[in-house]
Amino acid sequence: MSNATSPYSPSVGSPIPLDTAAKWTKKYQQEHPEFDEDGVAQEPTYATFFGRKALKKLMKRWGKRCVGIRIYQGIDDTDPTTTNRRRVVLVAVDKHGNDLLNVSKCEDGSVADPVLDNGLTCPKHCSNDSPLIQ
Predict the structure, then answer these.
(1) What end-to-end distance do the CA atoms of the chain give, in Å?
(2) Sheet order of strands, 115-116 included
(3) Rounded CA separation 34/28 (Å)
(4) What is the 3-state secondary structure of 22-42?
(5) Rounded CA gap, 114 and 102, in Å?
(6) How far apart are alpha carbons 103 and 109 in whole angstroms?
(7) Which residue stretches of the chain are H helix?
(8) Taking the CA of residue 93 as centre, how many other CA atoms within 13 Å lie in the half-sphere pointing to its CB?
(9) Which helix (H) or strand (E) holds 122?
(10) What domain of life is recorded for the organism (predicted)?
């Protein structure tokens, strides 16, 4: 067993300059336009909003075992009105980098699903004045 410190901690992540973030998001949006050259809607997802209470609840249910959240990329093929819409799936993560998925181990007694989705997606729900959306 290694004595190395786990890279998974509550302090992982760091700020980046706004101009860098704006450059990255603009490039993504340009490469994934809302409409193709023929005017056909592509239904891209540029961002997803999750409320503070939902995020806190996801982390709180695992108590101190949760050191952060992992965000998986996914494709929703269950909605007949859309074609393979990009989705994000959020899951709590422990200090060893393991997804916390076993509902029976929740410290708060919760029996709800251990993952979070169904946030509000942009471009339908975007910030009106953010440099992160073109």
Answers:
(1) 49
(2) 68-76, 85-93, 115-116
(3) 11
(4) HHHHHHHHHHCCCECCCCCEC
(5) 7
(6) 9
(7) 18-31, 52-60
(8) 18
(9) strand 120-122
(10) Bacteria
User: Tokens standing for 80?
Assistant: 């007949």
CB 47 within 8 A of CB 24: no
| Separation of alpha carbons 106 and 24, rounded Å | 37
Shortest CA distance to 94 belongs to which of 72, 131, 65, 120?
A: 65
CB 82 within 8 A of CB 24: no
Lowest mean pLDDT among 34-38, 68-72, 90-94: 34-38
Residue 94's pLDDT is: 93
Across all residues in the chain, what is the average pLDDT? 83
Please name the residues in contact with 81: beta carbons below 8 A apart, sequence gap of 6 or more: none
1 CB-side CA count, 13 A: 4
Q: Measured in whole angstroms, how far is the alpha carbon of residue 115 from the centre of its chain?
A: 11
Query: What's the CA gap between 105 and 99, in Å, rounded?
Result: 12
Instruction: Answer whether residue 131 shows pLDDT above 80.
Output: yes
Question: Within 10 Å of residue 130's Cβ, how many Cβ atoms?
Answer: 14
pLDDT value of position 95: 93
